[in-house]
Amino acid sequence: MNFKQFLKPDWRKVVIFFVVSFLLTFFLGVESPVTPLDISITKIGFPVLLLTIKETLLGKTYKWNFVNLIINIVVWYLLSCLIIWVYDKIKKRS
After folding, report:
1. Range of the domain at 42
2. Does any domain span residue 17?
3. Which of these, 7, 35, 49, 89, is most buried using a 10 Å CB contact count?
4. What is the pTM of this model?
């Protein structure tokens, strides 16, 4: 398998990409420290931060980082390609 075939999308890679990116980004990447003065800060994103939600007495502020979103998409797609590649290698040996 060459690099082009490694990156070529198929249904297995796309499904794994969506499952892994959703689960790991939104469930592992959430941290919510509470700061003084009733300010709550929630940070969402894994491996890099995507969204910061600051909740104060005056309301909520949302700050998106779209560059980090692109980085996360690339990382999760490469991970899904790697998972399928390893699965195919193990399947060939059996």
Report:
1. 8-93
2. yes
3. 49
4. 0.77
